[in-house]
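Researcher: Structure prediction, please.
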Amino acid sequence: MKAARLHEIGKFIIEDVEVPTPTGDQILLKIGASGICGSDLPRVYEIGTSTHRYPLTLGHEFGGEIVSVGENVDKSNIGKHGAIFPCIPCMKCDVCTSGNYAMCLDYDYLGSRSDGGFAEYCLIPSMWHFVEANDSVSYESLAMVEPATVAQHALRKGKLTAGESIIIFGAGPIGIMAARWANIFSAKKVVLVDVDLDKINFAKERGLTCIDGTKKDFYENALSLNDGNPYDLVIEGVGIGITLNQSINLVKTFGRIVLMGNPAKDTTIDMKSHSSILRKEITLQGIWNSHYHNIPLNEWHYTVSQLESEELVLDDLVTHAVEMDDFLEIFEKVYKKEVLSCKVLYRSDLK
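Model: Predicted structure follows.
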């Protein structure tokens, strides 16, 4: 099979490798689609893999169809299609035993530590990682279950309730997904913020309110969209000091800010903002990935159920879907920002 594999920083190539054979509890997934995550780009061109394992097939946002299973797995699972939860927790540490698998102290991970979804097939450790979906859910949507669930998790940790207002910094795919979740959760007002005109227009074309964070009248504009009031909840999805300061300024007294964006080089805040955290008794909530346990609720299963009911729509966020032979070219163009992109996928010939 063909797989896009990282051999060292900057050496990302497509090569032929053996199709793995599942044994024991393992299942073999034929990839339907696999999405490029923002974290994949620096992994290839700047920082390498977190465990320095090479070569490695990247890709952790993916779904597909089960085509083969190990001897411990019921063969009736062959033919099912769904998304894959890529975290491989140790199941031994304290956070694992409490069901908080994303916080595992000794985890593996498909696509960043073990071979992932930028390939024609992927070996999955067990059916536990498989989130089944009905035939109405496209492979494109299944490839976006992971980021959509991160967005859902951000709103849940931010305790968004019906009738509240929310402003989201970052109008990339996860920002747009967060806005759509906010509408599903019956937020009163949902506003996105970005500095990229293409992203702003892309969000507006999909019926969302999105404003330019660089404008001189930004604060006045943001508040006017919420009837002159600061916001109940702010999602900081960029990870830089500027947007964190803006978040602090726009949240109401006793409001909540969810820190969702991975931190960039400058995450400092000014003294006025620091004072505002104290004076307004703002709650700062960090998040990491998503929740994959039935208590209190498996967020992955909820994402898929919302796709099945068509309450959540994701397919219109795909700007590029290419086969393996064209994948490296589009990957590099996304990194160099040479194409207007929201969600870019490797799409197999699986129908």
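Model: The radius of gyration is 20 Å.
Researcher: Thanks, that helps.
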